[in-house]
């Protein structure tokens, strides 16, 4: 049974309306800058050198070894596009690349070992005893990058490293049928649902859902966007810079004359390509994006500094001011100290300039850096593996990506030890907060964009007899009367804090979660509840969770297929296919590999038979001539 709450707290003012969109003509300064880019690119000379022909055929045993090694190196980058090589570019301060020198992309750059990807391993949340630690506190998270990178890996036939999947980002990739908040209420609605857990027979599953108010694109207001684009050599493959260029064309098509767009690129050095172009200047924006080429190393730190300078230059009061960083996360030269980057991003966030990160490609991908930069910049992190994902993030969910409706959103749940003996939070490992952080407005937390939904799951176990607890907690014993403070009708008490974008003091929301809102059978829960449970179940299986005692891929498949519900964009059906792929890979990984034949020391696979060598009959080991 779902329970919706309708808080009456604070009004949300209507944002400024857009002006009419129109076809623009490039400004004089930007046109001149782009012509300089074109001249520079033409001067560099055509494409890079072609890949050398294979060496002469070696002996059979050597040929197998070389092919095997080559296959391992190229597994993650089969498609390589040798992009145009950029020559040194010089542009003026009114929209120019200043002193930017980009070296040609190294030949065969895409052959990067998969081990160079950086995915942080999380220590999964353990089972908490409600009688000892009844309060759970965490920051919300609207990132989706972990699910998209998982999808890419599964499509390439491999599983992620255990512990690296962020389950909350899998949950929040999908839309759920949460109600919109009521008018003149908090900027988001709150829904809870309670049903038997599919993971363990003797436990329950609690779902907490938040849904931000929606906002049409026409009401977003004026936007000041700075595209900070990685054009280093690592971005040359087709799934990186070419996909990035197409993705940003989709975004700029949504803008209008009141918007401002700047472009900063970085490789061995950083430079300005566009300086405050009009959002409806389609010709200028498209031309600038199409001229980008990849080459050189990655000076991301310098690029970020320059991007924030442009964001401040074109700052729009009461508008959207955001830097959009698009990269494979390979910060390898220049000012790359993580603490310095975080300090810069947090300072600019306090000045009203947010940071969104878009990840591209694999091979040398830094997922951990992308996620943490967005977290500190009051933005969100998405991974773009296909053009469809670009459309989802930058067109369908543009309002959510750009427009923040609530910041520093924190969740705190106090479990009643009279009814709950144990609980565990599924996911949100790197979003955990101390209990005292909930009331501390100086502690940073996550943001919700317009139309965003947030889902969290707790697995919990009931008890028949309540434990006596600290009388300072809600579900304790009154020190004077010796009686329980509250009845046994509530299993938990949910509290949330948030700030409106322009405020520094948080607002408090609170809701009881009642025992009688539970359903007796999992099948009676909503499709959204069961699908969310399936998504979290896959994430836990891939992470090697120790807490799934009655759950496997077979049960996961049945659960997911029973909860597809309304799926207009096909994301849930896609999940089912990925789930089946993961199950097949997992099964194949468990099969023993026979490395030898007939007890001999021949390698697997067997060596090619040399030309002219007679076929050996296994039933005739001496190879005697048959009569």
From TrEMBL:
<dbReference type="Pfam" id="PF12034">
    <property type="entry name" value="YfbK_C"/>
</dbReference>
<feature type="compositionally biased region" description="Basic and acidic residues">
    <location>
        <begin position="595"/>
        <end position="627"/>
    </location>
</feature>
<feature type="region of interest" description="Disordered">
    <location>
        <begin position="590"/>
        <end position="627"/>
    </location>
</feature>
<dbReference type="InterPro" id="IPR036465">
    <property type="entry name" value="vWFA_dom_sf"/>
</dbReference>
<protein>
    <submittedName>
        <fullName>VWA domain-containing protein</fullName>
    </submittedName>
</protein>
<dbReference type="Pfam" id="PF12450">
    <property type="entry name" value="vWF_A"/>
</dbReference>
<dbReference type="Pfam" id="PF00092">
    <property type="entry name" value="VWA"/>
</dbReference>
<dbReference type="InterPro" id="IPR051266">
    <property type="entry name" value="CLCR"/>
</dbReference>
<dbReference type="InterPro" id="IPR022156">
    <property type="entry name" value="Uncharacterised_YfbK_N"/>
</dbReference>
<dbReference type="InterPro" id="IPR021908">
    <property type="entry name" value="YfbK_C"/>
</dbReference>
<dbReference type="InterPro" id="IPR002035">
    <property type="entry name" value="VWF_A"/>
</dbReference>
<feature type="domain" description="VWFA">
    <location>
        <begin position="224"/>
        <end position="402"/>
    </location>
</feature>
